[in-house]
Structure of Glucosidase 2 subunit beta:
Amino acid sequence: MPPHALSGFQSLCISIKLIQFLAAMMFPGKFIMALCTVALAEHVIGVLPEKQALYTADLHGKWHCLLDPTIELLFEQINDDFCDCPDGSDEPGTNACAFTKESPKYFYCANKGYKEAYIENYKLNDGVCDYDVCCDGSDEYKSGNCPDVCDQVKKQYDAFLAARTSDVENALKVKKDLVSKAQKLKEQLVKNAEFIAKEIETDEARLASLKSQLEKENDDSGAEEDSLSSIIDTFILDHLRKVEETVSQWQTHVESTKERIKTLESMLQNLLENYNPNFNDQAVKQVVSSFADYISNQPETETEPVWEMPQITFDQLSEKLQDVMKIPDNVLPNSDTSLLGKALKTTRSLLGKPGSDSQSKNGEIAKKGGTKKSDSEKIKQLVAEIDNIEKSILQKKSEQAIYTDGINANHGKEDIYRAVKGLWVNKKIGEYNYKLGFLDALYQDTTLVGRFMGVQDNSMFFGHGSKCWNGPQRSARVDMVCGEKHDLISVSEPEKCQYRFLMYSPLACEAMSEEKIARDFKLDRARLKI
């Protein structure tokens, strides 16, 4: 008998279809036909209750393929272990019709007291009790070797559901705390960035002010330098012209005197050589004798006469030297490379030198120059302060960039990864001890598997690890599933030196429906009592 299992009552119903027209006018006949239809529909194995109505014979005891009504079959051909319909609808309770990707075939398991389910038709009557799907054992209905264990399966499921729901709730609390911590960390970064930005703004304003002061000091120094130029013009040009005039006049006077002396000497020389000593002229004799002594005692070279600068010129020079004493050192010409600079430096030194002739005349100048704070010191201080502030601004901008990068970096949904930065998880799996540092690195014992590269959804990526022997650099992907604690579960190597980790973590937790939790349920067959 086919597995739709017609009862005696059903057979009787089919038989009386021959007299259906005679009974059409009779109420009991209509009632009997209705009962027959219901009975037929309720007992087609492998079909869920809502679709039993599709498996109803017509008044002639015939049935049509669901997707091709032109194909007519006897009702007894349903589940006769022979595939008659192209869509396989005539064999819902057998594996006679092939299971394909394009046309999958499923068998309905009622699983009373638990959850109804569907199993692939090729698993029917294969001698295996697929309790994880059909806990009622209906997938092995031919042998009857798989008793109904749905009550036991339900107990395991209920225990799993309660434990898993509790785990998820606890993990969500942990995640909530992590999100709160991450938000506070980001807020602190924002505050730090704002604070450092204000400091930079203040420093830049101070820097602008100092540069303005320095520019003013330099302008003043420039004016003093112009004053120095004026002094130099007067000191070198004006007084030089006066000196040149005086020297020229003196030289003219000397030359004139020399000419007169030369003429006189010539006259006396002629007298010395040509006078007649027989003339007894005592005056002439005395002159000749004196000139002879003059000639014999005359030195080979004569010393140039000493002359003095007029007092008015010295007074003017003293006034200019007072201005020289006031000039800052930084605007003086370099004494090492400039003759003028060396002269001015020597002059300033002499003005303050104890015992020098100039001290008595210019001591007051030296005193004023020694007591007045040098303008060059102010400039040096300004330059030093500007340099320090510029260095400080540069350092603060580097610090600001770190804060900005930290704020803008991808730390996952709700920035939650900020809260676990620096946290390490250790777990020995197989022969190796694995160490995972969030946002840091991943190690297999002491071998670098990879450094943190980024996050996407509930996965972390690590790359640029140690190079494998005759292979690529190591890398890893860490997929996280919801868990109250961070815990590595497993590791695999799908490709050479490319690792895949599975890990529990509250980072991956979301509110879960019972249906979603149920997907993770695994039946422990060892606990079943059969």
User: Anything to note?
Assistant: Residues 422-527 form a domain with the Cation-dependent Mannose-6-phosphate Receptor; Chain A fold (CATH 2.70.130.10). The two ends are 29 Å apart (CA to CA).
